[in-house]
Specification:
Layout (H helix, E strand, L loop, with lengths): L9 H23 L3 H11 L7 E5 L5 H10 L4 E6 L2 H8 L6 E4 L12 E7 L8 H10 L1 E12 L7 H20 L2 H13 L3 H10 L2 E9 L4 E8 L1
Parallel strand pairs: 1-2, 1-4, 2-3, 4-5
Antiparallel strand pairs: 5-7, 6-7
């Protein structure tokens, strides 16, 4: 049972992503007109990694953001892409051998304190069953002065974009999900976005999780938010 609208238990989230792994990439491209690649590039830029750096991409999915991070650190650096869906990791492993793909639960990361220069999560934070704990774990594994970056969908507040957003996410996305063969997963997406904190509230949670200098950038007309904070 769902605890509240847009929330699933951990096992349900894992099963859902295992089911949709085969359609995840093409659905992302259709739903964003291919712009999701550019948003991940910007998230990787905000991580401010140098050659030889160490980065962790949490809830990496099929791996696109982790691959971007690997481009920033080069062959002398280390990027770990972690996820708790083996089906998603299987897709990620086929994309790049430059990333260490590992199974991990975002709420209990199996990495030492301060072991990375940056940690990122792209379109995964809203699926954390405990957002505060997930953010705290990301901050824990990043060294002092390193960065945490959160890339997420956010809900625009003003028309006409808010009207378009509502039509797209409430009607078009579920319809695409039915065509893709998993209507439940793509009905969950709009509700998960709606209950996720807005930009200011998310910034507050990042600060509470151990980050300073938290700022955010809105793009795509206010539909996409990129947050970055410095671990204290």
């Amino acid at each position: 049972m769902e605890a509240r609208t847009g929330t699933l238990e951990e096992g349900q989230v894992r099963a859902m992503f295992d089911r949709i792994a085969r359609v995840y990439d093409p659905m992302n491209s259709v739903m964003t007109a291919g712009l999701h690649h550019r948003w991940r590039e910007r998230a990787a830029d905000l991580a401010a990694l140098g050659t030889g750096g160490r980065a962790l991409d949490v809830a990496c999915g099929t791996g696109d953001l982790a691959v971007e991070l690997a481009c920033r650190v080069g062959p002398s650096g280390t990027v770990v892409g972690s996820d708790f869906s083996e089906a998603m990791l299987e897709r990620a492993r086929a994309k790049s051998a430059a990333v260490q793909w590992e199974w991990a639960n975002a709420l209990e990361l199996p990495y030492p304190d301060g072991g990375f220069d940056a940690a990122t999560v792209g379109f995964g934070a809203r699926n954390f069953s405990d957002l505060d704990r997930g953010l705290a774990e990301m901050a824990r594994v990043v060294r002092r002065g390193g960065r945490v970056v959160v890339l997420e969908i956010t809900t625009p507040q003003r028309p006409p974009l808010s009207t378009f957003f509502s039509i797209w996410f409430d009607r078009v996305v579920p319809a695409l999900g039915r065509l893709a063969g998993d209507p439940d997963a793509y009905a969950y997406l709009p509700s998960s976005v709606k209950r996720f904190p807005g930009p200011a509230a998310l910034a507050g949670k990042m600060h509470a999780a151990g980050m300073d200098d938290v700022r955010w950038i809105l793009t795509a007309g206010g539909i996409i938010a990129l947050h970055v904070g410095t671990v204290r």
